[in-house]
Amino acid sequence: MIDGRALTTVIDEHGDAVTVSGELRAFATPKSKISLTTGTSRHELRAFRVIEAAANENWIDAKTEPTNGKRPNIVLILADDVGVEAFNCYGGEDYETPRIDELAATGLKFTHAYSQPLCTPTRVQIMTGKYNHRNWTYFGILDPKEKTFGHRMQAAGYKTFIAGKWQLQSYDPPDWPNAERRRGTGMKVADAGFDEYSLFHSWDTEDKGSRYPDPKMDNNGTIETFEGEYGEDIWVGKIADFMERNKDGDEPMFVYYPMALPHWPFNPTPDSEAWKDASRRYEEDTAFFPDMMTYMDKLVGQLVDKLEEQGLREDTLVIFYSDNGTDRRITSTMNGVEIQGGKAYPIQSGVRVPLIASWPATIEPAVCEDLVDASDFVPTLADLARLKVEDWWEADGQSFAPQLFGREHPNPREAIFCCRCAAG
Question: Does residue 99 carry a pLDDT above 70?
Fold first, then answer.
């Protein structure tokens, strides 16, 4: 953002990222080519056409439903700060991710899924279905006038739960300009469309506490610190408890898990050798990043295993996605090439992220090369929930439900928007 205006990048169907401002900029493509553009381009015009078509189509029909006709439970996992290069199933070589790889091997793996290059822009976009130029307020703020996918799923008759990182009520450290004026002006999670919640940083003050060792959390309005425990373990436990309590009900469940891992601070995990020494649990070192990746994968596996134990796996769609590329302090190897994390930059390593969908006996193992971005989740969830959208349709995205069920999309994307993020 510059003076409140978004500098926009378009990523076209070939994976090329180009600007739609008059500013000249170069971006690397997946094939390490350089694309240069300036002024108005065919990419710019195509992008606007796609958004207009997506906003006006509002299509939901039987072609988007699973063959068994059931509405699924949905568990949407949003990893924090990790791009495709970190996962074995995408060619990553440095970290062990067997449980996520298993989801990809037995489900649908999208090879051209994109996000915004920072957390707030993606989180606002995924929850509202709108591009940032339509509802951006400030970093760490979700406009309280917006409707989220939590509201939509509640309207469709789903029981809803969120656990993980919020940071959308405001993120304004005292040394930020005008921090006091903005603090607490974003959406309160109690108003965000979730029946229950367990979250890090969902309160007004900047006394956030820790998200990892000795985590500080807001559990349905009660803020408490869990001494000696690890944040992600608590959230996975609370998700499992929510599903256990609601598994026999008439309403399907929607669980949104915006996990903290593997975002900095790069602390030890409970499986790290350093964790055994309590005095080292707040130690920060990028050397712990592989441990954080492995632990993230372990947690995803624990959730899947819990679904199996509860007899819910066959009726549950698990989606794994990420909010932006990897931290720039991390360099990883993908298909024999070293890739520096591109978080905060609208380049492939900053916005190309994993997207995996797994629903046994419903989604066949496959790879999808179609373009998808965060704005597509709201219409996809609406399709899956069979929610009539005519009265509230404002999303810029389009449903990828047809692709989930092995069908061609009648109007596949040709472009998406990514914004260059900066203070302003």
Answer: yes
